[in-house]
Amino acid sequence: MKNVGGFWISIGTRKNISGSQREIHQLIEVKLDYIKHIRMKNTILILLILFAFISQAQQTKETNMLHILKNENLEICIDLPLNNYQFSRFDWTGKITSVKFKGIPVSTQEKINGDEENVYGKGFYNEFGIEMPVGFNEIKEGEYFPKIGVGALKKEGETYGFSNTYEIQPANFKVSTESNKLIVECVSKDVNGYSYVLRKEIELLESSFVIHYQLRNTGEKTITTNEYTHNFLAIDKELMGSDYILKFPFDLKAELFDAALNPEGKVEFGEREISFNNTPEEQFFYGNLSGNRMVDAYWELINTKSKIGISETGSFKTNKINLWGWKHVVSPELFFDISLKAGKTTKWSRTYNVFEID
Question: Does domain 67-356 match CATH 3.30.160.250?
Answer without folding.
Answer: no
